[in-house]
Amino acid sequence: MKKTNPQMIQLSCNCIYQSDKSEIKKVSEHIALSTKEKLLLDLLVEKKNELVTFESIEKEVWPDKKVSATTRRTLIHRLREKVGAQSIKTVKDFGCILETL
What we know:
Strand content: 25-35%
Strand order of the largest sheet: 1-2-3-4
Radius of gyration: 13 Å
Number of helices: 3
Number of strands: 7
Helix content: 25-40%
Largest sheet: 4 strands, antiparallel
C-alpha cells in the first residue's frame, strides 16, 4: 500500500496543495499563499466537498474582527485564481465548496 503525505492534498489533476509549505504546486510552478489564503484553504480542505458557510470562513480567517463581504469575496477570488476557478464553487449567499478528486 502506498503511503500518502497528509501535508500534500490533490486539489485537481494538475494542482497540489502543500500545507506544510503554504504553497500550491501546479505542474512545475510553485505558488505561495498569504496567511489568510492558507487559513481559508486549510478550512476548505478540512471540509472538502462540503459547504463551508461564509460565517464559518469569517470566524476562521478573521476571528477578532468583522469584515465586509467585499473583503471576503476578494480573498476567495485570490485563492480561486491560485488553485483554479473550477475547484472552488460559491453557493450564492451561503458559502463555498472545495471540490477535489
